[in-house]
């Protein structure tokens, strides 16, 4: 309360409310008696207005209408104003009935006063919000970006998610978007408007709508759509030739997978507290493009991600090696069907088998070896330490010798932070693998 009293904005709103609340009571008399006020009416106004004004201000405060941030006033504040107005009107009618039995007073004046009070309170809060949106620099915010520098955006979907996007764009002057219209498959919505922005046509007409409006980017705001519908919409976006993004579902936002600003994901660089380490993509491209790449442990969590990332750099041929049949098959299906890449071979076997390694290197002559096959789960390795030595050390060393014998250009060992001053068997076995590679 003390902090609020030190805020000059609170006093501005309070002063505006005092003027408005006094005015609406006089206005109620003017409307009720068609502008012809007698001395008796003015006497009643002077008699009632001081305590009625106090009632109103106290009630509005108790209902939280002076604690909110008025720039964000919305439906919740309107409901609070409605409840406060009902309470004030009921109190005023009860007080007049109790002390005066309405002798010389008009009941309709107090009903009109309640209606006008509600409208005045809501209007003042809405005026603050509109002023903030129109002149954000007056509140210490950056001014809105000029229209010419904003991307022209079409939103696919005209439901609740799309409406939230419109409000986010309008409330945040830093967002570089100007929304031109909506596309929706519901024929009943076409021709209607959301916050003054028209629903132009169905999502099958993305290209035509984009050409007609001059759109530069598309946003899919259909978080509740099924797989078939999303696939169809995405295909329409692809045919339009424009860049497109999708809006995450509200369930993802609640589960902290993304923030409402994407709207952007919370990135690892926000948590590091140091500058981001950037990949040297050009040098990676020079290393991978057109080369034969062998990936061991290709079906595992790390190996499969390496497969996905390597595809971006135009490899000549990929050799996937893994001892787990199911994981290897899953990796193959993803590369084949999701990435439409066919220059590959899958080898089901263990890195420990020297004969297998010699046959693979002799037949495919890999230029780059990415060694991701390893036992990584600390508790299991603590119980089965011999497997760490056999798989992480001996197998790695055999692969290194095979790569050296067949003159591979590069050998990259995927290690672990647990190899730094190791305190467990898994970390020690990976540190040994690092030392062996350094020796080679």
Structure description:
The chain has 440 residues and is α/β, with parallel strands linked by helices. It is 53% helix and 12% strand. The chain contains 17 helices and eleven strands. The chain has helices at residues 2-5, 8-32, 39-62, 75-99, 107-134, 160-171, 206-213, 227-240, 250-254, 269-272, 281-288, 301-311, 325-338, 354-364, 378-383, 385-405, 425-439; strands at residues 151-156, 177-183, 193-194, 197-201, 217-220, 244-246, 292-296, 317-322, 344-348, 368-371, 410-413. The strands form two sheets. A six-stranded mixed β-sheet has the order 3-4-2-1-5-6, with helices on both faces. A five-stranded parallel β-sheet has the order 9-8-7-10-11, with helices on both faces. Helix 3 crosses helix 4 (75-99) and helix 7 packs across helix 8. The longest helix is centred in the first third of the chain and has 28 residues, at 107-134. The N and C termini lie far apart (72 Å). The relative contact order is 0.05.
């Amino acid at each position: 309360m003390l902090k609020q009293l030190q805020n000059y904005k609170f006093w501005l709103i309070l002063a505006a409310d005092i003027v408005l609340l006094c005015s609406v009571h006089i206005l109620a008399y003017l409307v009720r008696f068609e502008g012809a006020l007698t001395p008796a009416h003015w006497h009643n106004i002077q008699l009632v207005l001081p305590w009625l004004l106090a009632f109103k201000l106290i009630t509005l405060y108790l209902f939280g209408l002076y604690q909110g941030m008025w720039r964000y006033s919305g439906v919740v504040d309107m409901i609070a104003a409605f409840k406060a107005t009902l309470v004030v009107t009921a109190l005023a009618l009860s007080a007049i009935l109790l002390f005066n039995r309405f002798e010389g007073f008009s009941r309709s004046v107090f009903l009109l006063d309640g209606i006008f009070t509600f409208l005045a309170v809501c209007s003042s809060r809405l005026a603050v919000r509109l002023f903030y949106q129109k002149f954000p620099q007056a509140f210490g915010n950056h001014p809105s970006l000029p229209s010419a520098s904003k991307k022209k955006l079409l939103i696919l979907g005209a439901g609740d998610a799309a409406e939230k996007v419109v409000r986010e764009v309008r409330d945040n002057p830093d967002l570089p978007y100007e929304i031109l219209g909506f596309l929706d498959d519901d024929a009943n919505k076409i021709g209607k408007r959301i916050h003054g922005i028209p629903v132009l046509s169905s999502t099958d007409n993305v290209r035509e709508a984009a050409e007609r409006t001059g759109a530069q980017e598309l946003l899919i705001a259909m978080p509740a759509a099924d797989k078939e519908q999303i696939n169809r919409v995405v295909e329409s976006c692809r045919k339009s030739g424009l860049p497109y993004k999708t809006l995450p579902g509200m369930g993802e936002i609640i589960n902290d997978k993304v923030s409402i600003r994407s709207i952007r994901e919370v990135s690892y660089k926000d948590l590091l507290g140091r500058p981001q380490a950037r990949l040297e993509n050009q040098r990676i491209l020079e290393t991978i493009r057109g080369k034969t790449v062998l990936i061991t442990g290709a079906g595992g969590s790390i190996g499969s991600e390496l497969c996905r990332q390597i595809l971006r750099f135009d490899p000549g041929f990929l050799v996937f090696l893994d001892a787990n049949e199911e994981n290897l098959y899953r990796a193959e299906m993803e590369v084949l069907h999701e990435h439409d890449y066919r220059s590959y071979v899958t080898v089901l076997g263990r890195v420990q088998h020297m004969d297998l390694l010699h046959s693979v290197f002799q037949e495919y002559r890999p230029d780059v070896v990415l060694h991701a096959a390893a036992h990584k789960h600390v508790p299991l390795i603590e119980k089965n330490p011999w497997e760490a030595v056999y798989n992480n050390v001996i197998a790695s060393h055999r692969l290194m010798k095979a790569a050296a014998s067949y003159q591979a250009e590069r050998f990259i060992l995927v290690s672990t932070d647990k190899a730094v001053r190791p305190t467990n068997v898994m970390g020690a076995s990976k540190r040994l693998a690092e030392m062996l590679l350094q020796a080679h």
